[in-house]
Each structure stands twice: as structure tokens, then as C-alpha cells.
Write a structure and sequence with these properties.
Strand content: 5-15%
Strand order of the largest sheet: 1-2-10-7-3
Mean pLDDT: 95
Shape: globular
Number of helices: 18
Bound molecules: protoporphyrin IX containing FE
Helix content: 40-55%
CATH superfamily: Cytochrome P450
Distance between the termini: 37 Å
CATH class: Mainly Alpha
Length: about 425
């Protein structure tokens, strides 16, 4: 621990996440030595780095003081500039409002609440109960397909990628079906979102095309796709029951949302749960395979709903698929003895909070029976608490039930391979083989 120095410690370089995974040792050091630390580096705009569970909760619960509308994510100055450039270009080309934000995560209440409420009822346990049986069936089918693939590869002496073979399928199918998007489109949509977060989707890029141009083309294609969905739902009228229809025909202050607002809304619903849930499933399976005694416990008790639930929660804590969100203080605030001044940004590192020994006994023990488990994988219980938390939990549990008999038949070959992204350091590959 003492090897680190607060002046040089690096928790912001995405490429380092590829080499070492999440910087847990660095966060532990910071949580102990400087849990509220003014982080200033050349490549990134400065922010207060927050690593304690209690401080993240305080910030999230004070959404009127720590707002979303100014700086929402920690990313390099280069990425800030690239994002600004492409958003401005798109707005200009499409004649859109330059002052409108990308989606409702960037809004503050009461506007944020009004936008969120358009879809919130679709994500309640009552609404999800209707699709529970279907999720179970899909997970079961995907698990059987995967087992066949795993065994086939084993006979040929080959390994298999768990991400492509299982983990990416359920999140995509679940949200694709809820939104009523044709399943022939899902693969392309997934590829486009992968490009946008930095996954090595080599097939997407044209010959000689640089990354920036490719990412711009991906964003443009996604925008066109969502505009197509909007026109289609308009033509079909408000009667359909899918989530896209509900969003497209929603009324706020007596008006429908604009194309610009609608495509942002549809995109965030499609994308927010895809990489995250896929990461939780992949990271969870990697953790389980590294702990064979926990695989045994799960496989022998797969009909124990309490264990399925606690296992899902431990996987969320352990994997923490979202690295951080930022906020900006709009007035001075005393946070655990530090004054955060109006205009200053804070960055909340959720995985760091999820290893905070003040809240979790032996935080580095992966324990699928852990209860209580007050992790912050879905954020800090404030106004922006993950809209899809129930959906993600139900998907994760369905995946665990279906995978419980498969896990004892597989082995980890290579640990998770990540994408260089400081917001969702998504796992794009996990190599496994038949045991
Ligand atoms: C394991 C999977 C997931 C994780 C770890 C995750 C994590 C998060 C986190 C950390 C936030 C920010 C919370 C805050 O600022 O307080 C968030 C917000 C959000 N999530 Fe998720 N999420 C997951 C799955 C999903 C799914 C399946 C959806 C599907 C719709 C979704 C949609 C959203 C939306 C729309 C927001 C913004 C909410 C708002 O600003 O009001 N997420 N999520």
C-alpha cells in the first residue's frame, strides 16, 4: 500500500485498466489516506475523487446540490473534446437544438423526473413479473446452446469465448424485446454500441478508417436507426404495447418529445443495460470459476432462491460494472470535513465503495452467501438510481439459475479482457474450456 504516492497515483488512464483490471489497490490507498482527494492530472479535468461508501451515498442523496447537468462522467480532455465535437456536428447536420442534452441522465429534477417517469413503470417488479417466465426460458436455451458449443470446442481441443457464447445474449434479447426491436437488428446494434465504448470490433471499421471516424459513423448510424424506430411507431399509432411505442407517444406538458429527445431516450434505454449486465454476468462467472467451492455451493443449491439472490448481489458488488459517475456542486457543501466549493466536480468510484471495509466484512472475499450486501453497483440511492436495476437483477438471477449446472463443467483459461473505457470498462472476452 505504501508504494503509492498521492501526487502520482493513476486511476484515470483507461489503458491501465486493460493491464491491471480495476485499480483496487490504488483505491484502497486513497480511501485510507485521502478519501476525498482533489485529483489533478494533465490529461483530465480536475475533480474530487470519492472512494468511501458513505460519501458517495451523501452526494447521491443531495441531488439538488450535486447536479448531473454539468459534468456527468470522468473522461480524458481528449474524449471530452471528441464528444463535444461529434455532438455539435450531429446537432448542426440535423438542425437540432445545441442546448439540449443527450438524454435524461444529464438532466436534473424536476425535468429529469418527468422524463424518467415516462418509462419507469416498465421496470418495476410488477411489470417484470410478466416476463419472468420468458427470461427463464431464454436463459435456459442460451445455456444449452453454450454447453453444446463448450463441449464441441472441448472435443476439438479448443477454447470458447463466454461473452459471445452466453453473456451478451440475454441483456440484448431482454431489452430488444421490451423495446419491440426486430431481433434481426440486435447484432448490428450491439456491434455499434461496442464500437462506441471502445471494444475491438474490427469488422465494423472500413479499410484505413481511423477510430474517431469509425466512432462517429457508429453514432450516426445509431441515430438514424432510432429515427427509423420513431417514424415506425408514429405510423403504427399508440396502441402497441412495446416500450418504444410508449416513449414515442408520451406527452410532457401537452407535447410529444422532439426527435432529438426521443432518439436519445431510446438509445440510453438500449445501451445502458447492455454492456453493464453483460459485464456483471461475465465478471460473475469469472469470479465463480476462480472460487470452485462457491460453484459447488451454487450448483448444489440452485433451487434455493435466497442463495440465487445473494449470489446475484455479491456478483454486482464484486464486478461493479459502472466505474463512476460525476456530479458538480452548485453550492458549497461540507462533505466529511472537506469543503466542496460551488462549481467543483466530484467523481464517485462505485467499485471502490464496494470494497469499503467500513461497510463490508472482508471486502476481498467473494462470498455468494453475503447478507446484507449494501453495494452501490447501481449508484447511491438518489434521484438517478439505476432505472434498470430490477431488470438487471432479474436477468442476472435467470442467468445464474440456468448456468448453475453448466459451471461445474467449465474452467477459466484466460481472465477477462477489457475495453479501454473509464465509464464502463466492459469485458469483451472471457476464454473458457470444458472441464
Ligand atoms: C448490472 C447492470 C447495471 C448496472 C451495474 C447499472 C448501473 C447504473 C448506475 C451506477 C447508474 C447511475 C446511478 C446514479 O447516478 O445514482 C445507472 C443509471 C441508469 N441505468 Fe443502469 N445499470 C445496469 C443495468 C441497467 C439496465 C438493464 C438498464 C435498462 C434500461 C439501465 C438503465 C439505466 C438508466 C436509464 C439510468 C439513468 C437513470 C437516471 O438518471 O434517472 N441500467 N445504472
Amino acid at each position: 500500500m505504501s508504494d503509492f504516492n498521492l501526487d502520482t497515483i493513476d486511476i484515470h488512464t483507461p489503458e491501465l485498466y486493460l493491464e491491471r483490471g480495476y485499480p483496487f489497490a490504488e483505491w484502497d490507498f486513497m480511501r485510507k489516506e485521502a478519501p476525498i482527494f482533489w485529483y489533478e492530472r494533465d490529461e483530465i479535468a480536475p475533480f474530487w475523487s470519492i472512494t468511501r461508501h458513505a460519501d458517495i451515498l451523501t452526494i447521491s442523496k443531495n441531488a439538488d446540490i450535486f447536479v448531473n447537468s454539468k459534468r456527468l462522467r470522468l473522461q480524458s480532455k481528449e474524449d471530452d473534446a471528441r464528444q463535444e465535437f461529434s455532438t455539435n456536428l450531429r446537432n448542426e447536420q440535423r438542425g437540432w437544438d445545441p442546448n439540449e442534452v443527450s438524454d435524461f441522465i444529464f438532466m436534473d429534477d424536476p425535468r429529469h423526473r418527468n422524463f424518467r417517469l415516462i418509462s419507469a413503470k416498465r421496470f418495476t417488479p410488477a411489470a417484470l413479473r410478466k416476463v419472468e417466465g420468458h427470461f427463464a426460458q431464454m436463459s435456459h436455451d442460451f445455456a444449452s446452446e453454450f454447453l453444446t458449443e463448450l463441449k464441441g470446442a472441448g472435443k476439438r481441443g479448443e477454447t470458447t469465448d463466454f461473452v459471445k457464447g452466453f453473456a451478451e445474449k440475454l441483456p440484448l434479447a431482454a431489452i430488444g424485446e421490451m423495446m419491440g426491436l426486430p431481433n434481426g437488428d440486435w447484432k448490428r446494434l450491439k456491434q455499434i454500441t461496442n464500437v462506441m465504448i471502445g471494444a475491438p470490433e474490427v469488422d465494423f471499421f472500413n479499410e484505413g478508417e481511423d477510430r474517431n471516424t469509425g466512432v462517429w459513423r457508429a453514432m450516426d448510424e445509431m441515430t438514424d436507426y432510432m429515427i427509423g424506430v420513431i417514424r415506425d411507431r408514429e405510423a403504427r399509432g399508440p396502441e402497441n404495447d412495446d416500450l418504444s411505442t410508449q416513449i414515442v407517444h408520451a406527452m410532457l406538458d401537452g407535447k410529444r418529445l422532439t426527435d432529438q429527445q426521443l432518439q436519445g431516450y431510446l438509445f440510453v434505454i438500449l445501451a445502458a443495460g447492455n454492456e453493464t449486465t453483460q459485464n456483471a454476468i461475465t465478471g460473475g462467472v469469472a469470479a465463480l470459476l476462480e472460487h470452485p467451492e462457491q460453484v459447488k455451493l451454487l450448483a448444489e443449491n440452485a433451487d434455493n432462491e435466497d442463495l440465487i439472490k445473494s449470489c446475484g448481489e455479491e456478483i454486482l458488488r464484486w464486478t461493479s460494472p459502472v466505474l463512476q459517475f460525476a456530479r458538480t456542486a452548485v453550492e458549497d457543501f461540507e462533505l466529511s470535513g472537506h469543503t466542496i466549493k460551488a462549481g467543483e466536480d466530484v467523481g464517485m468510484w462505485y467499485p471502490a465503495a464496494n470494497r469499503d471495509p467500513a461497510v463490508f466484512d472482508e471486502p476481498y472475499n467473494f462470498d455468494i452467501t453475503r447478507t446484507p450486501n449494501r453495494h452501490l453497483a447501481f449508484g447511491g440511492y438518489g434521484a438517478h438510481f439505476c432505472l434498470g436495476a430490477n431488470l438487471a437483477r432479474w436477468e442476472l438471477r435467470a442467468a445464474l439459475r440456468a448456468l448453475a449446472p453448466v459451471l461445474p463443467q467449465m474452467e477459466l483459461v484466460n481472465g477477462p479482457e477489457r475495453c479501454p473505457n473509464l465509464h464502463v470498462s466492459a469485458i469483451h472476452r472471457l476464454e473458457v474450456q470444458a472441464a
